[in-house]
Amino acid sequence: MSTIFSKIINGEIPSYKIAEDDRFFAFLDINPLAKGHTLVIPKVEVDYIFDLDDETTKGLFVFCKKVAKGIKSVVECKKIGITVLGLEVAHAHVHLVPINGIYDIDFSKPKLKLDKEEFIELAREISSNIKL
Ligand code: AMP
To answer: Is 0.70 topped by the overall pTM?
Structure first.
């Protein structure tokens, strides 16, 4: 069975794409904690992040670094926080969240409501600032 994130990778479901290479894909979270909240996923369909093979694990972190630098250059924040939950979607993914303090990465707080144009513009700006 194909996860919703595999469908995003395949283009069957639309997403606000940030970056992609042969092994990884990054796109904006549709229920963001902050502007620029991004999900980074391996293309291989594995549920639990610590079940990924070592090469994919290493590559995922390096890919996250490149994406985080792109987000940081566009969204004003102290740092890009990194979190893995995986409670909702059974396809390993890393949350990259612009933060100024601990409250900014509290997943229990209400999510931002952005309109489609804001998502499109954010994705465009961030993706044009990523060097893979
Ligand atoms: P979790 O599995 O607990 O890390 O949460 C899954 C995350 O994926 C949540 O933050 C959702 O807002 C996000 N999400 C679910 N479906 C989509 C989608 N189609 N496009 C972008 N983000 C999504």
So the answer is: yes
Q: What is the DSSP secondary-structure string of 28-77?
A: E-SS-SSTT-EEEEESS--SSGGGS-HHHHHHHHHHHHHHHHHHHHHS--
User: 38: Cβ below 6 Å to ligand 1?
Assistant: no
Question: 1-16, pLDDT tens digit by residue?
Answer: 699 999 999 999 999 9
Which residues have a catalytic role annotated? 93
State which fold the 4-127 domain adopts. Answer: HIT family, subunit A (3.30.428)
Given a cut of 50, the residues of the chain with pLDDT beneath it are none
Q: What is the pLDDT of residues 95-114, one digit of tens each?
A: 999 999 999 999 999 999 99
Q: Is 90 in the pocket of ligand 1 (CB under 6 A)?
A: no
Ligand 1: which of 4, 28, 89, 95 to mutate, judged by most atoms within 8 Å of the beta carbon? Answer: 89
CA dist 32 → 2, 18, 104 (Å) = 24, 14, 11
